[in-house]
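Translate sequence into structure tokens.
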Amino acid sequence: MPASAHGVDAVPASQRVRSTAGRRLMGRRDGGLPLPAPFLVVMSALSVQGGAGVAVRVIERAGPVVTVWLRLALGAVMLVAVRPAWRSDVRAWRMAILFGVVLAGMNGMFYAAIGRIPLAAAVTFEFWGPLAVAVAGSRRRLDLVWVALAAAGIFTLAGGRVAANDVLGVAFALGAGAFWALYILVGTRLTRAWPDGRGLGVAMLTGGALLLIPAVAVGGRWLLDPWVLGAGLIVALFSSVIPYTLELAAMRSLPPGVFGVLTSLDPAFAALVGLAFLGQALTAPELAAISMVIVASAGASLGHGRAHPVPDEPLVVAD
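Result follows.
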């Protein structure tokens, strides 16, 4: 007779522990993917930065507004086509719409930044947002060290940005960081309102709708260009559909601190993509500055990861 017939107490405690650990590592049956969660986060970061590398080329031709619209709109079509969203909860729809506004602001500013400064620099400047969320309200003195280290890295990286175009790019990247912080806070509530993950499609549709008129006004002719549409489809797939799906699956099993450590690798991946595909070589001080931000983000996230249990619902943490 199977153990389940005798109730949960009939299953040895050690076996139940191993089963729980396995679900945390491999993902859950309610949408999790059968792969190790850390692997999903790393693959998500690689996908996002790879898509950003393609986005730079689209921005050079069609501009950031058109590029962001293609990413959100085409990504939304793919997500909604696979997993249509039907809910009667007004609060859930309100959260999805709000998240869409955040997505439009975050991606719009980030793409405006990478059109002006190197990809790795933009990601590093943007990282102040999630770092601020990680240490907000903390009473640990050590967190002040991480903030100081990150600030030193950002200041060092900004030191060589003296041209007007670069200054504007830095400003856009810092603005994207503010939206990234909102992305974490609002995204957490979104995944609770839409535990099946279908609210993401609604959010991206909202962001696309907000940017439709500006995209047509600024670069409407590019929306009919086959190369721009094809490249935009790649950006939508690799910068939105794939990474968001992987992150949601990973966050069902990873503690927030561990997730934060893994996402702190984003600036490093951005540097590799920028060098390999865009020819954006960085100087030794710039590499040192990026390393400071990576270490600060990892340190802040690790400290808070031990204080929180694995959530019952997936959390959305930044691209």
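Note: Residues 1-32, 305-319 have pLDDT under 50 and may be disordered.
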